[in-house]
Specification:
This protein is an alpha+beta fold and about 240 residues long. The chain contains five helices and 14 strands. It has one domain: Jelly Rolls, CATH 2.60.120. It starts with a helix and ends with a helix. The model has no long low-confidence stretch (mean pLDDT about 95). The structure holds 2-oxoglutaric acid.
């Protein structure tokens, strides 16, 4: 099966050893430094509503012009891997680093954008600079759920039939369709657990596609959408 067929069928592909050891090491060092800076500032996780039980801190180093993150985001190898699943014509966003905080709840089941409009989706391009595991936070996905509509109501970390537990090793790239049901298990350790996400979209999909995330018990709006956006975006509370 080609990467493109696998992505179409399952909604995700896993590419191991995508980053060099040097790149993983450099990303890790920058992430450690950022976390230490936050610790010094006594940074807390923002108070969240009940349905998005996510204990994360977010950072956008590409927006800040961080050289290493910018060079990986703009690399030929990331472009080529993305083109395998989206075709040559795609758009990109800046970066989203998610620090799952120590002893936090990870990330509840969610879809990264409403699935009602099948063609309106983003692509998570998730890089893991360090090993993940069941202690610091596995990423759990339901293969094929990008074709199953809205995630059913239920517990934020309760298993969903068919789920697959992924524990990407350092250097792995996971390309994940934004309509796939996924969660990150709680971080039981004393250190943050990180993913680096360089989101992309098929050509023509607007930037605000990532403004609304769908949880099992509600939707969360992260940014404003234009008035002409579909109602699922424009009217989400
Ligand atoms: O950190 C991960 O492994 C997954 C991140 C995630 O769920 C997301 O960005 O929507």
């Amino acid at each position: 099966m080609t990467l493109s067929q696998e992505f179409e069928e399952r909604g995700f592909v896993v590419i191991e050893s995508f980053l060099t050891q040097e790149e993983s090491h450099g990303l890790n060092q920058s992430l450690e430094a950022k976390y230490e800076q936050w610790q010094a500032e006594a940074r807390q996780v923002a108070e969240k509503s009940d349905h998005d039980e996510c204990d994360v801190l977010a950072w956008d180093p590409v927006l800040e012009g961080h050289p290493l993150f910018c060079s990986i985001a703009a690399s030929e190898k990331l472009r080529a891997a993305t083109a395998e699943v989206l075709g040559d014509d795609f758009d990109t966003q800046t970066s989203l680093i998610m620090f799952s905080i120590p002893h936090g709840r990870g990330q509840a089941w969610h879809q990264d954008c409403p699935p009602e409009e099948v063609g309106l989706f983003n692509l998570n391009r998730l890089l893991y600079p360090a090993d993940t595991n069941l202690e610091n936070g596995a990423i759990v996905v339901v293969p094929g759920s990008h074709k199953m509509g809205v995630i059913p109501p239920g517990g934020t970390q309760d298993p969903i039939p068919g789920e697959v537990i992924l524990t990407p090793r350092a250097g792995t790239l996971v390309l994940l369709h934004g309509h796939v049901y996924h969660r990150v298990t709680p971080n039981l350790t004393d250190r943050p657990r990180n993913s680096v996400n360089f989101r992309a979209m098929p050509a023509g999909v607007p930037n605000w596609v990532t403004c609304v995330a769908v949880y099992r018990n509600g939707r969360t709006r992260f940014c404003d959408t234009p008035s002409f956006a579909p109602a699922i975006y424009a009217e989400t509370p």
